[in-house]
């Protein structure tokens, strides 16, 4: 199970790992985007199971009628196979659990912005948390996207760009995309623009993707008190803060502050650095400053946080399709 904050590269890691381990799963691989953190609603479990059965070769006319029957058929068909099932962008343990394949030879790889502790407790899941990249790996990512010659020619600016992006893979890729489309400005030109905090999030938004969009899709699922806490954390400039400081900022008791901070940490919007201390990534802090009191007061309908959302991705199995002859007889590859 890969978990981490928005833009840390969970899906990219899952797809890359599955491609490198293809030989371990001779009976195929299945990929489903559960849309847990997307502009639209999360995927319905029964409809996902139905699509999985179609990919496993069950014709529509032979599909079980009830939800329980569909789940049982899925587990029976996967029980004797060596397969990989990638469940991407999961919202909760409850959403994932019915989609776990049967038998001992299948592997399930889940990605989520939540910790999904329920899967650890009841389904023996192992967690791999992703965080921001260290400076060396951030520079390597820029080099992959922009080329070694360009990065080495402006190494000082590249190092500064890594700092301004805070090692967040999504921010680095968006920044690299801006440089690639405006080569005359170079890395130094973009760094000069990103130095303005008021413009940084806007510049780290490119076409249909961006840091603010990704963070917004996480924030829209927060309970009201946690969303309010996120907003007030935007005014805290220090690298870390304690529970009592957070309580003073939010105007609540230390106990309530601890509860809401834990909720933000579970959603990977802040990092738990000590017993009662937390750290806020500077891009998350800038995003928090864009939230309005109206959007965090509880008067805004649930799911209507005033932010820009990603365009919804394809509902499921959005991976290269096999040839028509094999599409009904084997799982679709990742």
Number of beta-strand segments: 10
Task: Name the strands of the widest sheet in spatial order.
Answer: 2-3-4-1-5
Regions with pLDDT < 50 over 5+ consecutive residues? 299-304, 306-334
Which series of helices and strands comes N to C? Answer: EHEHHEHEHEHHHHHHEEHHEHHEEHH
**Gap between N and C termini:** 17 Å
What amount of the residues lies in strands?
Answer: 5-15%
Percent range of helical residues: 40-55%
Structural class: alpha/beta
Radius of gyration: 22 Å
Describe it for me?
This protein has 334 residues and is α/β, with parallel strands linked by helices. It is 47% helix and 11% strand. It contains 17 helices and 10 strands. The strands form 3 sheets. A 5-stranded parallel beta sheet has the order 2-3-4-1-5, with helices on both faces. A 3-stranded antiparallel beta sheet has the order 8-10-9. β3 (84-90), α4 and β4 form a beta-alpha-beta unit. α13 crosses α15 (254-266) and α14 (243-250) packs across α15. The radius of gyration is 22 Å and the shape is globular. Residues 299-304 and 306-334 have low confidence and may be disordered.
Nutshell version of this structure?
The chain has 17 helices and ten strands.
Summarize the topology.
Layout: E1 2-4, H1 10-20, E2 29-33, H2 45-55, H3 67-79, E3 84-90, H4 93-96, E4 107-112, H5 117-123, E5 128-130, H6 135-146, H7 148-153, H8 155-165, H9 169-181, H10 186-194, H11 197-203, E6 205-206, E7 209-210, H12 211-219, H13 224-233, E8 240-242, H14 243-250, H15 254-266, E9 271-272, E10 277-279, H16 282-290, H17 293-296
Parallel strand pairs: 1-4, 1-5, 2-3, 3-4
Antiparallel strand pairs: 6-7, 8-10, 9-10
């Amino acid at each position: 199970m890969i978990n981490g904050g928005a833009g840390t590269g969970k899906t990219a890691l899952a797809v890359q790992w599955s491609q490198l381990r293809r030989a371990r799963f001779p009976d195929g691989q299945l990929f489903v985007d559960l849309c847990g953190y997307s502009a639209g609603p999360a995927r319905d479990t029964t409809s996902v199971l139905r699509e999985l059965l179609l990919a496993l070769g069950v014709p529509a006319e032979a599909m079980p009628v009830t939800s329980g029957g569909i789940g049982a058929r899925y587990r029976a068909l996967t029980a004797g196979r060596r397969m990989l099932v990638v469940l991407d962008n999961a919202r909760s343990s409850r959403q994932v659990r019915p989609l776990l394949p049967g038998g001992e030879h299948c592997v399930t790889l889940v990605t989520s912005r939540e910790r999904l502790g329920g899967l650890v407790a009841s389904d023996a899941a192992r967690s791999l948390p992703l965080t921001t990249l260290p400076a060396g790996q951030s520079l390597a990512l820029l080099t992959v996207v922009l080329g070694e010659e360009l990065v080495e020619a402006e190494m000082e600016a590249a190092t500064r760009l890594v700092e301004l992006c805070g090692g967040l893979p999504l921010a680095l890729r968006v920044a690299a995309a801006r440089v690639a489309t405006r080569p005359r400005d170079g890395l130094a030109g973009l760094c000069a623009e990103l130095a303005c905090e008021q413009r940084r999030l806007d510049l780290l938004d490119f076409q249909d993707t961006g840091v603010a969009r990704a963070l917004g899709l996480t924030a829209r699922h927060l309970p009201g008190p946690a969303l309010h806490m996120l907003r007030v954390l935007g005014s805290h400039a220090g690298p870390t803060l304690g529970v009592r400081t957070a309580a003073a900022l939010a105007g609540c008791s230390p106990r309530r502050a601890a509860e809401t901070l834990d909720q933000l940490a579970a959603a990977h919007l802040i990092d738990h650095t000590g017993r009662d201390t937390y750290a806020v990534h500077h891009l998350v802090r800038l995003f928090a400053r864009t939230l309005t009191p109206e959007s965090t007061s509880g008067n805004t309908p649930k799911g209507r946080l005033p932010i820009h959302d990603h365009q919804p991705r394809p509902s499921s199995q959005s991976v290269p399709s096999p040839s028509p002859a094999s599409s009904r007889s084997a799982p679709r590859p990742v």
